[in-house]
Amino acid sequence: MAVDPPRPKAMPLRALRAFEAAARHESFALAGEELGVTPGAIAQQIKLLEDWAGCRLFERKAQGVRLSEPGRAVLPALTAAFDALGASAQELRRAGMPGSIRIAALPSVAQLWLSPRLPALRAAFPELLISVTALERPPNLQRESFDLALFFLNEVPEGVECSVLAEDRLFPVCNPELAQKLKRRAEPSHDVLLHDETWRDDWPDWLRAARAHSGRHRHTSDGNSGPVFSLYSLAVQAAIDGAGLLIGHEPLVETAVARGRLVQAFNFSLPSEKPLCALVSKLSREDQVSRQVVQWLKQGNGSEPV
């Protein structure tokens, strides 16, 4: 009679993935955001992995969780393994869709910087199918199914090649009619200030720098009041329509300024520490198409002004 003893429980790959993301981010919430699940689901998967492994992977503290020694010891190998798995999956996808490129971009970059350049980009690469997805944060190019990412960054994520496409400067913009009323002034007074939800610090930062530059100390605005928009493109359109003043990010408003729909309201410009960057995974050595597209964008081909 054949003997068929029960096999040990299989390695819980889903739980390993949840643990690796939580350990790398040092956050259950950020891990859940990356994997598209709730922090509670991450916690459940980690508990499953701890039960399977027979050891604690996180130490639970009053102020949060911290990696245990066993968890810290296995993290580098797990990260490398999931990176390699992601790279292999990407190569498989490219083999099945050789004439395509998937671009992830900050919504404002996708709408105001990339979109005007897409017709010329398609003309330069007529065999290429170009898809664009708007994301608030850069994707993990070693894991997620994107070939190229366009974001304002001051720190380069690990595992990617970064090319600066454009430096950024911050300066107030408004439509020409409103600009006529602001002549001989150095900053807003009781004017309506428009805000983007992501860049709520733009106005306070610009006002602080402008006052330090001019030596002025008395002022009427702290830069926090005014309408807030969840999309920068909506705030730009509101400024074009005369609804108020907006802090312009130079790469995003250059087209509207060149066409005369917006003008720089005051002379002072604040250099940004976050240039517009193009990111490509270092693991995708065979992906020359993405690098060619980056080079095309970097050289200013298809730049839209006027």
TrEMBL record:
Residues in HTH lysR-type domain copies: 11-68
GO biological process: DNA-templated transcription
Gene3D superfamilies: Periplasmic binding protein-like II (3.40.190.10), Winged helix-like DNA-binding domain superfamily/Winged helix DNA-binding domain (1.10.10.10)
Pfam families linked to this entry: HTH_1 (PF00126), LysR_substrate (PF03466)
GO molecular-function term, one example from the UniProt record: sequence-specific DNA binding
Keywords of this entry: DNA-binding, Transcription, Transcription regulation
Key word Transcription regulation present: yes
Family: Belongs to the LysR transcriptional regulatory family.
Protein name in the entry: LysR family transcriptional regulator
Annotated source species: Denitrobaculum tricleocarpae
